[in-house]
Design goal:
It is a single chain. This protein is of the alpha/beta class. Helix content is 39%, strand content 14%. It is built from 25 helices and 26 strands. The strands form seven sheets. The chain has an eight-stranded parallel β-sheet with strand order 16-15-14-5-2-1-18-17. It has a five-stranded antiparallel β-sheet with strand order 19-21-22-26-24, with helices on one face. A hairpin with a 2-residue loop joins strand 9 and strand 10. Helix 15 crosses helix 19 and helix 18 runs antiparallel to helix 19.
Length: 778
């Protein structure tokens, strides 16, 4: 294979470090759950093969909390999840996929495990609670025994602990013989209400107060986690406990089954969930690369800020694609309209501008939800540096710093120095650079802070244009110029040609097609503002969400209300997940329109142009495109759990298109375009090499996004079509094609007989649809 330009001594990489020996043509994400198992996925294989995908990307497949709808709450790394069909079911799915020319990509979760109820579902954690720091499993988890007074805090109780509720059951206890479960679980257990806990050896006969004091853990009210937690968790979710995969033994134990599946050919690729949560991402990835070999495609879930780049030393194919999502969304956003919306939003709601919203959200989350994590860092740094630690975390502009970086971001240092003093900030900087343990914990806390304060708070507060408040987005500057988009794609083709690209995922707050409708509002800002009322901020959120969803059938109102309720709790302006205000929450349903809100005709046309243009750019640009389940056709979904419903596949529509029918409406137009590009990627991968911008010439040139891949493929999309129409259309704007004779693929109707050559007028090229896909003859 030809190596990207990031190889060589200057990058510290050799050819053997660069993955993979193969790159998927595309992936198709399936959300597995008890209602959609390996058997259901296997039944979809013939359709997905006909659609043109090359690999199925499965959500986590290892044993998880029973009933989990996502699988990121792993309880046992040694077993494939029984509720999905077990290992036999997974291997049968893999065999069926191979029989149709498809491979599998697995989503793995190295950062955390579940802290489940019942606790015994997580056997390693159960043993740590039973044996304390002397357990052979104690090295698995980031537990600060000193901070917990020698005990692991378990914030799982619904109310503060009453020692009188504690009772012992089991063979050695007071309630008779217990002899079930695995050998290590036999014997006496402690019960508090419906919850069961292990007992430290020799403590079963103690009275309740002494019994509780003698354990290696402390059962606690869930509210105590905010300030008293002494284990690393996933973000602010206390039910997910961090795992120390930087330890070679822990890595081996938690990855043995996944590595077996890769070695056996069951899986050909891996998606690494939340790589920023790890103590040493690069070290982990190098260990993983050595274990899976060079033939496994590996991408990382890494949220990059707008001007941030993936570390070139990482031996991966790239990211899961949120950086691409931001670029594609941004190029279909009108910068003038977005600025007008921001001004109107601030004036009507009294909310601050974006940078202040982000900073205030970071301070709230760090000193509130992440108070325990902050306390740990402050204790490690010492009281004289505590304020500087806090201010640096708040000011840091990306998710986390990495070991080996010469210094923290200069802007963060300067901003923190204004509040905490230059000397103390310099002290924290030096501590990060010379103390690996402190640096790792600082970085892990920084990643959690960015995620919770931006994605799960500021993005819900700042609502001028909701399509911009997506993971990896920049709500304060949402528009991307055509030149910026081309520069991004050229860099992707040069450095990360195998990186993933996405538009819709299980984590996006709104699917691409909902965002396409909302971003059309930037071209007519008067239609986007929320109605006046007692809560104008929620009015903005409700109106744009309703316009984005449109007519979604009989469940529309319920889906909208659920999304708005989550929005107000995440925003934490009037209510929150932990401090709910029932009276305020009762008003949310009043913001749901009685009837579906639809875009007026001109903006509906602009939404269609956005939807098809986004799909074209995503599927034709550099990288490995992923199609989310059902998103090959028009797919309108809101934040989870709405976007994790069982998949619905448009089998009949695809069969009708393949039989020669013209597309019926936007949904089938998108399906036809998606199938055409996926099939081209799989059958003619050479068409998707390289990248060359194709500039248009003429009065409407800025409304054209066009590029060539290899010598033989050209993609053309219309941007800001509503503004374009208002300015008089394409007029004599032309696009110069590369040398040769070009034919348009007949995606939207009958093929044109005459080929294109040289400079062509866009008014003629795009008279049937706002996008075009051309292939060179011969």
């Amino acid at each position: 294979m030809s190596l990207p330009e990031r190889t060589g001594p200057e990058f510290g990489l050799t050819e053997s470090d660069i993955p993979p020996a193969f790159t998927p043509a595309s992936t198709y994400r399936l959300q597995l759950r008890p209602e959609f198992t390996f058997t259901d996925a296997r039944a979809a294989v013939p359709y997905l093969a006909s659609l043109g995908v090359s690999h199925l990307h499965l959500s986590p497949v290892l044993e998880a909390v029973p009933g989990s709808s996502h699988g990121y709450d792993v309880t046992d790394h040694t077993r494939v999840r029984t509720e999905l069909g077990g290992e036999d079911g997974l291997r049968e799915l893999s065999a069926a996929a191979r029989a149709h020319g498809l491979g599998l990509v697995l989503d793995i979760v190295p950062n955390h495990m579940a802290l489940p109820a019942p606790l015994r579902l997580n056997r390693p954690l159960w043993e740590v609670a039973r044996q304390g720091p002397h357990s052979p499993y104690a090295r698995w988890f980031d537990i600060d025994w000193e901070a917990g007074g020698g005990k692991l805090m378990l914030p799982v109780l619904a109310a503060p602990l009453d020692p009188r509720e504690a009772r012992v059951e089991g063979r050695d206890g007071r309630d008779g013989g217990r002899d079930d479960g695995p050998p290590g679980d036999r014997g006496a257990v402690l019960r508090i209400g419906d919850l069961e806990f292990p007992l430290r050896e020799g403590t079963a006969q103690l009275d309740p107060a002494e019994l509780l004091a003698a354990q290696w853990y402390r059962p606690a009210h869930w509210r105590e986690a905010r300030t008293g937690l002494n284990y690393r968790r996933f973000f602010t979710i206390s039910e997910l406990i961090g795992v120390r995969v930087e330890d070679p033994e822990v890595f081996a134990a938690t990855h043995a089954k996944v590595l077996e599946l890769v070695r056996d050919g069951v899986a050909e690729g891996l998606r690494i969930d939340h790589v920023d949560g790890l103590a040493d991402p690069e070290g982990y990835l190098r260990r993983l690369r050595a274990a899976v070999g060079g033939g496994c495609w590996v991408v990382v879930e890494k949220i990059l800020a707008r001007h941030e780049r993936l570390p070139t030393a990482w031996p991966v194919a790239g990211t899961t694609g949120y950086d691409a999502l931001h670029q594609v969304d941004g190029v279909f956003t009108d910068p003038a309209g977005a600025a007008r919306l921001a001004a109107d939003f601030r004036e009507s709601t009294g909310q601050p501008e974006w940078s202040r919203t982000a900073r205030s959200s970071a301070r709230e989350v760090l000193t509130g939800d992440l108070a325990a994590e902050l306390a740990t860092l402050e204790r490690l740094a010492g009281p004289e540096l505590a304020a500087a630690v806090r201010e640096l975390l708040i000011a840091y502009p990306v998710y986390r710093p990495y070991p080996g970086e010469p210094e923290l971001a200069s802007t963060a240092l300067a901003q923190a120095a204004e509040r905490a003093g230059a000397d103390t900030v310099a002290g924290v900087r030096d501590l990060v650079l010379r103390d690996p343990a402190f640096a790792a914990r600082f970085a892990q806390t920084s990643a959690a802070l960015r995620a919770k304060s931006l994605e799960d708070r500021a993005f819900y507060r700042y609502a001028p244009l909701l399509s911009a408040t997506e993971v990896g987005g920049d709500p304060g500057n949402p528009a991307v110029t055509v030149a910026e988009f081309h520069a991004y794609c050229a860099e992707l083709a040069r450095l990360w040609p195998g990186s993933g690209t996405v538009l819709t995922t299980h984590d996006t707050k709104r699917s691409a097609d909902v965002r396409a409708r909302i971003s059309a509002l930037s071209q007519d800002p008067a239609l986007a503002s929320g109605p006046a009322g007692p809560d104008p901020q929620l009015g903005w959120v409700a109106r744009q969400t309703a316009l984005g969803l449109g007519d979604a059938g009989p469940e529309r109102a319920e889906r909208l209300e659920q999304a708005l309720l989550k929005a107000v709790r995440e925003a934490a302006l009037h209510t929150s997940w932990t401090e709910q205000d029932p009276a305020y929450e009762a008003t949310v349903s009043g913001h749901v329109p009685a009837a579906a809100l639809e875009l007026p005709g001109p903006l509906a046309a602009a939404a269609r142009a956005n939807l098809l243009g986004m799909a074209l750019l995503h599927l034709a640009m550099p990288g490995v495109p992923e199609v989310y389940q059902g998103a090959e056709t028009e797919y309108r979904a809101l934040v989870d759990p709405d976007n994790r419903r069982p998949a619905v596949f448009p089998r009949e529509a695809l069969a009708r298109l393949d039989a020669g029918s013209a597309p019926r409406g936007t949904a089938e137009e998108k399906l036809a375009l998606t199938a055409a590009l996926l099939r081209l990627r799989r059958s003619r991968p050479g068409l998707f090499a390289g990248y060359a911008p194709l500039p248009a010439r003429g009065p409407a040139a800025e409304h054209c996004v066009a590029f060539a891949r290899s010598p033989g493929l050209v993609a053309v999309a219309t941007r800001l079509s509503h503004v374009l129409a208002g300015a008089g259309g394409w007029r004599d704007t032309a696009l110069a094609l590369p040398a040769g004779r070009w034919r348009m693929l007949p995606v939207f109707g009958a093929a044109r007989e005459a080929p294109y050559e040289g400079a062509i007028r866009l008014a003629g090229l795009l008279d049937r649809a706002p996008v075009a896909l051309l292939v060179r003859e011969g």
